TrEMBL record:
It is found in: Cell membrane. Belongs to the FliL family. The lineage of its organism: Bacteria, Bacillati, Bacillota, Bacilli, Bacillales. It comes from Gottfriedia endophytica. This is Flagellar protein FliL. The chain crosses the membrane at residues 6-28.
Length: 142
């Protein structure tokens, strides 16, 4: 009977030690966590982004444009999907640009509006996440 009591005490002590250790690890992780305020770090933005190489195409009025983008996705799965959909990305960009005139690019927020339009159209085809932001990285109008 004395032997069973000793085994029970040892089991209880081991459980208490494991519980205290687990709580300590959780507290340490919470204290050391960097506040993100829901924003991604620059490393995460780069990790989840796809570089779209320069595209040269005609505008509606006959002028042409050279433009390239960095497209930020919501996660690694979305990045992988967007990489596979490269031909659709190019198609969406070319379709949008071919409907625009060079005069439109002289208006305030024209590039931002184009970026948002591309983002919305890409999100319509995405299945494993979404496009968070489209950045214009190169722009030449001729």
């Amino acid at each position: 009977m004395f032997k069973n009591k000793l085994v029970n005490i040892m089991i209880i002590l081991l459980l208490v030690i494991a519980l205290v250790g687990t709580v300590t690890v959780i507290i340490i992780q919470k204290v050391n966590a960097k506040p993100t305020n829901g924003k991604l770090s620059i490393d995460q933005i780069i990790e989840y982004s796809v570089d779209e190489p320069e595209i040269t195409t005609n505008l509606y009025n006959g002028d042409f444009i050279k433009i390239s983008y960095k497209i930020q996705t919501s996660n690694k799965d979305a990045k992988a999907e967007l990489t596979k959909r490269d031909f659709q990305v190019k198609n969406i960009i070319i379709q949008q640009l071919s409907q625009m005139k060079s005069e439109q690019f002289k208006q305030k927020n024209s590039i931002t509006n184009l970026e948002n339009t591309i983002k919305n159209q890409l999100n319509n085809i995405m299945q494993d996440g979404k496009v968070e932001r489209v950045y214009t990285t190169s722009f030449i109008l001729q």
